TrEMBL record:
The keyword Isomerase does not apply. It comes from Aquilegia coerulea (Rocky mountain columbine). GO terms for cellular component: cytosolic large ribosomal subunit. It comes from the Eukaryota. This is TRASH domain-containing protein.
Length: 169
C-alpha cells in the first residue's frame, strides 16, 4: 500500500496521512505544518533558512550533499561536418572558401561597379524624362500665355512661373 505523504511548508519534513496541522489563510492559500512548533514559527514570521533543523537551511548550507550527489551528465559533442546549402553545392562552397581574397575583392568591386552603372543609367533616364516633361510644360505655358483664347485660364494658374525662371526661350 502506498501512502501519500505531503511536505511541511515550514520545515520541509514529510507529513503522513492523519498527521499535521492545516492552516488556510484569508486569501485561500493552504499551509500544511508538521507540528505546532512549525506552525508557531511560521506565524511568528521566523525564516526557515535561519533555523538549523529545517530542510531549507540544510540545503542552503550544503549539509546533505552525500545523499543528493548526482552524477553530472556530459553532453555528447557533435562533430562538425559540411553540407550543402540551398542554391549552392558542397563543391561551390569549398571553391569559395579556397579562393584568394584578391579574387573575391575584384569580383565584389566588379559587381558594385555594375550596380552603380545601372543606378546611374536609371537616374539619367529619369532626368531625361523629367526634362522632356518640363519642356512640354514650358511649351504649354508659353502657348497658353500668348494664345489665351484657346486654353482655359485655370491651366495658367496651375503652373508656377518660378520653376521656369531659368528657361531661356
Amino acid at each position: 500500500m502506498v501512502l501519500k505523504t505531503e511536505l511541511c511548508r515550514f520545515s520541509g519534513a514529510k507529513i503522513y496521512p492523519g498527521r499535521g496541522i492545516r492552516f488556510v489563510r484569508a486569501d485561500s492559500q493552504v499551509f500544511l505544518f508538521a507540528n505546532s512548533k512549525c506552525k508557531r514559527y511560521f506565524h511568528n514570521r521566523l525564516k526557515p533558512s535561519k533555523l538549523t533543523w529545517t530542510a531549507m537551511y540544510r540545503k542552503q548550507h550544503k549539509k546533505d550533499i552525500a545523499a543528493e550527489a548526482v552524477k553530472k551528465r556530459r553532453r555528447a559533442t557533435k562533430k562538425p561536418y559540411s553540407r550543402s546549402i540551398v542554391g549552392a553545392t558542397l563543391e561551390v562552397i569549398q571553391k569559395r572558401r579556397t579562393e584568394k581574397a584578391e579574387v573575391r575583392d575584384a569580383a565584389r568591386e566588379a559587381a558594385l561597379r555594375e550596380i552603380k552603372e545601372r543606378i546611374k543609367k536609371t537616374k539619367d533616364e529619369k532626368k531625361a524624362k523629367k526634362a522632356e516633361g518640363l519642356s512640354m510644360l514650358i511649351m504649354l505655358w508659353y502657348e497658353c500665355f500668348y494664345h489665351e483664347e484657346n486654353f482655359p485660364c485655370s491651366i495658367v494658374v496651375c503652373f508656377k512661373p518660378a520653376r521656369f525662371a531659368d528657361y531661356n526661350g
